[in-house]
From TrEMBL:
It comes from the Bacteria. Keywords: Cell membrane, Membrane, Transmembrane, Transmembrane helix, Transport. GO terms for molecular function: transmembrane transporter activity. This is DHA2 family efflux MFS transporter permease subunit. It comes from Oceanobacillus halophilus.
Amino acid sequence: MTDQTSSGQSTDTINKVPIVIVLISGAFVTILNQTLLGTALPHIMADLQVDENTVQWLQSVFMLVNGIMIPVTAFLIGKFTTRGLFLTAMTLFTIGTLSAAIAPGFSVLLIGRILQAAGAGIMMPLMQTIMMLIFPIEKRGTIMGMFGLVIAFAPAIGPSLSGYIVEHAPWRTLFYMILPIAIIDIIVAYFILKNVTKRTNPKIDVLSIILSTFGFGGFLYGFSIAGSAGWGSVQVITSFIVGSITLTWFIVRQTKLKEPILEFSVFKYKMFTLTTALGMVTFMAMIGAAVVLPLYMQNMLGFSAFHSGLALLPGAVLQGIMNPITGRLFDKYGARWLSIIGLSLIVITTFMLAILTDQTTFTYIATVHAFRMLGIAMVMMPATTAGLNVLPMHLISHGTAVNNTFRQVSGAIGTALPITIMTTAAVPEEGINGIIHGVNVSFIVSGIFAIIGLLIAFYIKDRKEVKISSR
């Protein structure tokens, strides 16, 4: 019996390799942009004559628009063809990249980032959905491992790559180098990408889209400014109140609609709920270290931006190498023991980063972080795949949208919370080690979250157990 996509086309007739290359290339350049501008912001400030609060919007707006677009992708996947949606997402991203590269002023650069984020927001869940549909269940771990390589490796190399480029070339080079890859990807996709998702032609519920935008957008905006504005500021509190009310309204409305924009019934599947929680904890751990360690190395140890990015590179490379390997291990053994071993590694290495001093070496930081990223590679994509595997075909697109949305929220929390803890727990009157104390406390809190994740991992069932329980 041949495998079929939800559109009824046999997956045996689809040449999967070029499709995977096109998808991964597109995802790589779109996801790379999440962290690519970090070390370039001072150069953009000087060139376009804007202050720190203004330039920070280039980062915040990308995350915000990304987070707003992801929840509606399940609806878009049902409304449009695979090729049409992919080409639209990549075209939006490419136009945004070109606009940013030639931007005469900050406003055009910001519009470019918004267009980039809109394309990227569609790309992530669309790519996962296509992968889950064209590959049989016994091969999904391997292919999702390849996807994991992209979503982990791309943002991880962003800071060091950006740091190197802006030291040797204008900041616009960051956009010009991505532009040809995006254009080539669109051309190749036009000729080889197949329509594999099923068009259900759902009705547009405008109110749901508005509620989703204000709900997820409110939370993401609140978390994105909490680190700088303070958790008790009017902006942050207002954002959380608006986000809470509209998101609750959105969820209640989805349960009553015949054709919901986002199907929250995916949470009826226990494995999906557990693995989504696990993915959030793991992603928070990854993002938190990526934010705190460069600040610690630059502001407290005196390293350059490039060298602080370089310290994270071994971990990014190791995670990139390990993701396909852990994907294969998942196909063979399931997610349970991979997650338990991986989270044990994360717990140990997180507490090893909670004993930093002004004498801590570059080698120690790079080595411990590398082993931490190995643990993350063992958890993130195997857990995600295990959760999506239990969903029926018609809920896969909703599962990927929910999964990516919650990962985006956890990324926002993982960015804001460690910085807040670090600044609150710091003791400036005790000198540099008093300030470093704040960094250590932030890693202790991160370690507690990792322990919670480890406890959750013991409840994960492997594939054979899930099959038996779902019969």
